């Protein structure tokens, strides 16, 4: 969906590469493929084996790197980051990767997710004499690592990580090693790939395809991976919980060509549409999807219902992703610039409009109005996910409960508010069936924003624990 998702913004995307002479350039391309995960800032830090060198700034990847001198970013390893600020202000000092230097070693840190106890930890660190330079929760981890006094290694990193609570995927670079870690519940995505002899780590596998790398495996929940010239090594830093991958990665956030937890996003969205069609059919002439993330579900709905799929709404490709604009006024204006009905297709027709979710309802109302103004006889709204009724504390900038339309209105009331002839949501069981392939420890999704069942509590308690 578009501006409707203004309250659902992924914090960032992370990328790392080890062992390639064009590390900086490949990181640029990897970040470009994940631009959808954050548009407020981008950066890369490169290691040549002796020192770390950074280039970063506010804005889109192309804008940040259009005047970059890659000859000054030489090195065979790099980490990169695209950012949406859910924790910390959108200021240059908060743009990641955050880089830290000491007399003995340097460190660059890129993070996707949310450290729930960051405020408590930063208060403790300041009480012990630390001076934090940013308002980003990511900096807390760096201070915890360095305060161990034992340098940057697997032990100091695991000791630091075990003090934090939340959902996180970290990629860290020093002069001679790269580290990657995932929280014990595996809420955020992180994968490992290969490009010849080089190792690649990224939030989404579409970054591997962009640079010609091949997928190797997921970083497992509670796993710390170490990569250097000798190869790759792994340790478990925490008892692994049942994996609870964020359901919104499949519903909306990830690119359709990515595989998240070894499940293809496009295929899972098609299955969402099919499940929705079986549970909530509509007497209509055609199915349309709201570009772009709802198209896959619309195709699935059309296939299962036997209705034709039509391009009833077109998208202006030259307008940035609306939901991620920093002000409400710009978001609302962006909807008008970004979407337009195809009058010759929708006029006089009964339409099933597939969207991935409804947050506040304001954009859904505009789109329904836009379709009816273009002559649509009926608009039946079908949502390819359960209703969003709860805020997220795991790295998605979710609206407060008071702002969520489904938390305060019934389905019938929502239909009246947005002007639809009918509204229906995908069930929790239908979403699970569309995403989860099996019942192994590696499979499972977090639907906290839909169910209110949070897999990780602020005190660090996990919903389920796996001791195998």
Commentary on this structure:
The protein is elongated and about 70 Å long. A hairpin with a 2-residue loop joins strand 15 and strand 16. It has helices at 23-33, 61-65, 118-127, 138-146, 154-161, 206-211, 247-253, 265-279, 295-305, 328-338, 343-346, 362-373, 405-408, 411-418, 428-435, 448-451; strands at residues 12-18, 41-47, 52-58, 77-83, 98-101, 106-115, 166-173, 178-182, 191-195, 198-202, 214-218, 223-228, 231-236, 245-246, 259-260, 263-264, 286-289, 313-315, 339-341, 350-355, 378-383, 422-425, 445-446. The chain starts with 11 loop residues before the first strand and ends in a 17-residue tail after the last helix. The chain contains 16 helices and 23 strands. Helix 4 (138-146) packs across helix 5 (154-161), helix 8 (265-279) packs across helix 9 and helix 8 packs antiparallel against helix 15. With 468 residues, it is α+β, with helices and mostly antiparallel strands. Helix content is 28%, strand content 25%. The strands form 6 sheets. It has a 7-stranded antiparallel beta sheet. It has a 6-stranded antiparallel beta sheet with strand order 5-6-7-8-12-13. The protein folds into 2 domains: 3-242, 4-Layer Sandwich (Glutamine Phosphoribosylpyrophosphate, subunit 1, domain 1); 259-431, Rossmann fold (3-Layer(aba) Sandwich). The longest helix has 15 residues, at 265-279.
């Amino acid at each position: 969906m578009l501006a409707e998702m203004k309250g659902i913004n992924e914090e960032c995307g992370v990328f790392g590469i080890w062992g390639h002479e064009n590390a900086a350039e490949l990181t640029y391309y990897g970040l470009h493929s994940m631009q959808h995960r954050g548009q407020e800032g981008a950066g890369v830090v490169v290691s040549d084996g002796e020192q770390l060198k950074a280039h970063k700034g506010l804005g889109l990847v192309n804008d940040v790197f259009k005047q970059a001198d890659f000859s000054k970013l030489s090195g065979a390893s790099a980490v990169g980051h695209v950012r949406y600020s859910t924790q910390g202000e959108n200021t240059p000092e908060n743009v990641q990767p955050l880089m830290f230097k000491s007399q003995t070693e340097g460190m660059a840190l890129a993070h996707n997710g949310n450290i729930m106890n960051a405020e408590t930890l930063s208060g403790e660190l300041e009480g012990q004499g630390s001076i934090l330079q940013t308002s980003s929760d990511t900096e807390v981890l760096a201070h915890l690592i360095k305060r161990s006094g034992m340098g940057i290694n697997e032990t100091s990193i695991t000791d630091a990580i075990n003090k934090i609570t939340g959902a996180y995927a970290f990629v860290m670079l020093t002069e001679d090693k790269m580290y990657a870690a995932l929280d014990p519940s595996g809420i955020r995505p992180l994968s490992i790939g290969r490009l010849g002899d080089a190792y690649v780590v990224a939030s989404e596998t579409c970054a591997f395809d962009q640079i010609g790398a091949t997928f190797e495996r997921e970083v497992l929940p509670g796993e710390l991976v170490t990569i250097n010239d000798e190869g790759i090594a792994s340790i478990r830093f925490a008892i692994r919980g049942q994996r609870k991958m964020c359901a919104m990665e499949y519903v909306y956030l990830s690119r359709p060509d990515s595989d998240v937890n070894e499940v293809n996003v496009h295929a899972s969205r098609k299955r969402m549409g099919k499940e929705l069609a079986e549970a909530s059919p509509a007497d209509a002439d055609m199915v349309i999807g709201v570009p772009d993330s709802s198209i896959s579900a619309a195709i699935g709905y059309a296939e299962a219902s036997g209705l034709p799929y039509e391009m009833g709404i077109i998208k202006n490709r030259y307008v940035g992703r609306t939901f991620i604009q920093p002000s409400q006024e710009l978001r609302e204006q962006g909807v008008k610039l970004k979407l337009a009905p195809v009058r010759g297709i929708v006029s006089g027709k009964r339409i099933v409009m597939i969207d991935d979710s409804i947050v506040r309802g304001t954009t859904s109302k505009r789109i329904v109005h836009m379709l009816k103004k273009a002559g649509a006889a009926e608009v039946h709204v079908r949502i390819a996910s359960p209703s969003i009724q709860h805020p997220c504390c795991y790295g998605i900038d979710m609206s407060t409960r008071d702002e969520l339309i489904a938390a305060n209105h019934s389905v019938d009331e929502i239909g009246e508010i947005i002007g639809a002839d009918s509204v229906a949501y995908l069930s929790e069981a239908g979403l699970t069936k569309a995403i989860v392939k099996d019942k192994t420890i590696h499979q499972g999704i977090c639907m906290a924003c839909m169910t209110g069942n949070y897999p990780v509590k602020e005190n660090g308690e996990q919903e389920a624990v796996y001791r195998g």
